[in-house]
Amino acid sequence: MSDYTVRTLRPEETRAASLVFRGAMHLPPIKDEDWAVAQRLYQPERTFGVFDTELIGTARSFDAEFVVPGGRRVPLGAVTAVGVRSDRVRRGVLSRLMRAQLTDLADRGTTLAGLYASEAVIYGRFGYGPATTEQSFEVDRRRAVLRAEVPAGGELELVGPDAFAERMPQVYAAIAPSRPGMMTRPSHWWPLAELHRRWTENPVVMVVHHGPSGPDGYVIYQVDRKHWNQPSTLEVLELVTASDAACGGLWRYLLGVDLVDTIKLPGRPLDEFAPLLFTDPRRCARTEGGDGLWLRLVDVPAALAARTYEGEPVVVEVADPVLEDNSGRYRISPGGVERTDRPAELRLDVDALAMLYLGAWRASALATAGRVRAADESALTRADRLFATETPAWCGTHF
Ligand SMILES: CC(=O)SCCNC(=O)CCNC(=O)[C@H](O)C(C)(C)COP(=O)(O)OP(=O)(O)OC[C@H]1O[C@@H](n2cnc3c(N)ncnc32)[C@H](O)[C@@H]1OP(=O)(O)O
């Protein structure tokens, strides 16, 4: 086994980290003219590197706030840009990075860590579990007709490219994050949106809906139209609405965009209502679905205490081999969460706890898969009720 050094990178080393990550993802290096923007993604002290003779693996995180069931916001470490050089994989480099990063996040008092996984087999062993589910739709724009009852909507504002960088953060902060699973977008996130606009061939368009008390919805999209006689697609990059009028107004707008055949709506929440808006719901067809945000409870007692519950108490024994302080028994009830010596009614690993945490998965389903071990059926029934949520969690922010 090689000797490795694992440490946080200095600002002048982040470009090498970007090169390692992008190489691992089969992406070209960031060009000189874009680096001034890209380097703003790097929150100081938050990029880890693994070295043998040189840098061979990296992972970074940035701070945000995350909405948990019940509406409270907790500190989130948003983990991204994970990559190991292809000639050094499967030698434990990622394992060292994950251990260092999680220990660091715990020392900083972070409650949760979150990431989007390139492959679903990577992060479970480090305590991450798929905690939100997303689905995608395609609207046959030329044949789709809105139902007459859909609200007309209020005033719309087309945000020009010059105003984008200023308006987007304002509008996002005013409307989101509202539902469980959403997160704030700190200064270390916004350069991603700017890089996307620089790198995409098709113009990115933002339209804001104004309600009686200010912005209450927006859509960001781009249209891919290769040639005048080929079908063209409008891809919705973001659609957030906080009122029925905003929803109706923005959908009327989208259907009215000329020269478009198909509207693609990727990464939507499980309770997406778009098909209900059309006289023929099949004109808004579900095309795919799968895992969205992966969560890791970094501080299990703080994370469990932050969300709300309904029903009867249950005693859960959590095993966390990476952050061992989390291991132990917790009595979870609507009145609060406490460590306890009472006998365990459910036993599970910390990655399975992440799958329960936002209500995406039920304890009884995890038990069927052997991921939760229950003393009896009643403990499962109580856990199903305790962790259930009214609104399916959805993040809507990629990083
Ligand atoms: C949040 C994000 O940034 S997602 C992007 C993640 N990055 C990528 O997908 C880029 C391409 N892939 C890579 O860079 C690397 O293969 C990584 C980062 C996924 C894994 O790095 P490695 O250093 O090879 O991982 P490491 O050797 O520590 O593996 C730990 C364990 O996970 C397993 N593992 C790691 N990656 C994979 C994988 N892609 N598929 C299957 N198993 C994997 C290993 O086999 C090992 O299992 P073991 O403990 O049973 O022996």
Automatic annotation (TrEMBL):
InterPro entries with a match to the protein in the record: Acetyltransf_17, Acetyltransferase_Eis, Acyl_CoA_acyltransferase, Eis_dom, NAcTrfase_Eis, SCP2_sterol-bd_dom_sf
Keyword Metal-binding (UniProt): no
Keywords from the UniProt entry: Acyltransferase, Transferase
Domain Enhanced intracellular survival protein: 300-395
Origin superkingdom: Bacteria
Keyword Signal: no
Annotated acetyl-CoA binding sites: 82-84, 90-95, 118-119
Domain Eis-like acetyltransferase: 181-286
Active-site residues, Swiss-Prot/TrEMBL: 123, 399
Family named by the database record: Belongs to the acetyltransferase Eis family.
UniProt subunit comment: Homohexamer; trimer of dimers.
Protein name: GNAT family N-acetyltransferase
The organism of origin for this protein: Amycolatopsis cynarae
